[in-house]
Amino acid sequence: MYKNTDYIYDAASKLEQITGLTATVECKRKEHDAVININGQQFFVIARNEIRKGNEGLLINLVAPFENKLTSHVLIAKYISAETAQTLKSLKINYIDASGNCYIQTKDFFVYISGQKVQRKQKTNKAKAFHESGIKLLFQLLSNPNNLQLSYRELAELSDISIGSVSNIIAELESEHFILRTKTKRVLKNKPELLDRWIIAYHDVLRPRLLKKQMRFSNAETLANWKSLSLKGKGFWGEESGASLLTNHIIPETFTIYTHENWQTLGSSIGLVPDENGNVEILRQFWEKNDDYEDKPIVHPLLIYADLMQSGFGRNLETAKLILENELSYIK
């Protein structure tokens, strides 16, 4: 799939203008987005159009394999939010944006520039596929690619959207090269990129509309025994609590429940009370069918992964990586 990475050259040019360093770019190596040479030192480029809070976790996870070689890699983006730039700097992850803001630290030189006026690009994901209906449909396709073989009517019922929306979104995904239509079936393509875009859109567009109530456990005993609470027919654990049940790799500090129930009924049934600063969030379940995953009362690992990645916390990113490697290996 063609990626427009002209902003890599813009970033190199700005770096030269501001610092006087020489910066040359080579974009022909298939194993990297590009290679940039700064004052004779080579860096492998990880390129993204925009880096901000919504996909910060994704990017940090992306550079994790190079933890011991961070000085040989650099993130380059058209736009990097000031908040995310500080996060990258604190993690000693090299970055450059198209306006010339950068943090580059090697054994030979150090460059840090901030305060250059950034021209934030128009929001991507304007396509129907990344509006609310598209996000719901993509959840069904990414959680089970076999769903792509269902009829438009079945997909509409599964996603709780109109048949017309399904038709338009599928056509758009085909034009964006995320779906390939053969003589006998439809195939999901470029799944890692589609997953990244879906996570950003889900947190930008849909998830903020799902919050029903912030709550807390009514007492310490209920909190200590949260795993034994019965959600049968009431809802499903997500994010940290869902990840804990799925992987046994994390002790949750926050708890998330996706449900069709109203928060009053759910809260009274499992010992929750309203609290604006509470560590239990009750979210509206935005899909119709959800069976227990491997006999656990949790949402699909795709949704757990998306929420963990967006949080940006190191322990959550580590757990998300495990989920991607195991339950979501079909997306890699």
Written account of the structure:
- The chain has 12 helices and 14 strands.
- With 332 residues, it is α+β, with helices and mostly antiparallel strands.
- The protein has a 7-stranded mixed sheet with strand order 1-2-3-4-5-6-7, sandwiched between helices. A 5-stranded mixed sheet has the order 11-12-14-10-13.
- Helix 3 links the parallel strand 4 (73-80) and strand 5 (95-97).
- The protein starts with 5 loop residues before the first helix and ends in a 7-residue tail after the last helix.
- Mean pLDDT is 88; it is low at 121-125.
Query: SS-based structural class?
Result: alpha+beta
How would a textbook summarize the main sheet? 7 strands, mixed
What string, H for helix and E for strand, traces the elements in order? HEEEHEHEEEHHHEEHEHEHEHEEHH
* Total strand segments: 14
Determine the mean pLDDT.
Answer: 88
Shape label: globular
| Largest sheet, spatial ordering of strands | 1-2-3-4-5-6-7
| Residue windows where pLDDT falls under 50 for at least 5 positions | 121-125
Helix content: 25-40%
Return Rg in Å.
Answer: 22 Å
Number of helices: 12
